[in-house]
Amino acid sequence: MRLYKFLSSEHALQDIRRRRVKISEIHDLNDPFELLSCDLSDPNVRLVILKFRENLAGNRGLLCFSGAWANPVLWAHYSDKHRGMCLGFDVPDDVTQRIGYASERIPWRKPDEDFMSHILYTKFAGWAYEGEVRVYTERTEEDNGLYFADFNEKLKLKEVIAGHRCCVERSEILAALTSYAEFVEVRKARLSSTTFEVIEDANGFTS
Predict the structure, then answer these.
(1) Helix or strand or coil: residue 128?
(2) Other C-beta atoms within 10 Å of 88: how many?
(3) E strand residue ranges, the chain
(4) What is the mean pLDDT of residues 174-184?
């Protein structure tokens, strides 16, 4: 599955050079309702869910991706107002899960495996523009208080797309990719003239 990560130019180049991407910690995610998508009006239920969340956050984190890169809102929110980049990765289907979006909280039921999985992969409908696909992963080595997932066969960099306001030259991106044995496509984005989408610039970095 091809998945996309939106980043500032600085962080994108660092990740390319170091062959890694930051793991998001559960307590540091944008959505304050993360893993709290069910009805918590019962105090006992709330305790169960909060304990579940705390246990998961203790040694797990998230890699958050989008299934597409054409949405200008994603570029605005996560790629420095279109001045950043989008990294495209090939990730095995069996380690990914698409997020479902709901306008109302999930009714509580027996906390079996299916129900807890439902909570893990449900967010408020207001986030639906992200088209999020996520990978839960263990946090291991810490680097200055942060955790990273290394590029490998299950996280293979395949594309670098520079935003339409990105000032990084193609040559600098290619220099960051020098040590990569496999081909990584480098593209430039532009705004579509006919739709509200971000598309590839056929003129590349010369426009």
Answers:
(1) helix
(2) 19
(3) 2-7, 20-22, 24-25, 60-66, 85-90, 97-98, 100-102, 122-124, 132-138, 142-143, 146-150, 156-162, 185-191, 198-200
(4) 95
pLDDT at 206 over 80: no
pLDDT greater than 90 at residue 140: no
Per-residue tokens: 131? 């088209």
| Lowest mean pLDDT across 2-6, 113-117, 199-203 | 113-117
- pLDDT band (50, 70, 90) for residue 9: very high
Region of 159 please: left (phi>0), alpha (psi -120 to 50) or beta.
Answer: beta
Regarding pTM above 0.90, the answer is yes
24 pLDDT tier (thresholds 50, 70, 90): very high
Beta bridge partners of 3: 89
Task: Report CA torsion sign: 1, 70, 194, 163.
Answer: negative
Positions of E strands within 8-138: 20-22, 24-25, 60-66, 85-90, 97-98, 100-102, 122-124, 132-138
Q: How far is CA 186 from CA 3, 68, 149, 178, 179, in A?
A: 15, 16, 22, 12, 15
Q: Contact at 8 Å (CB) between 173 and 13?
A: yes
What does the radius of gyration of the chain's CA atoms come to, in whole angstroms? 19
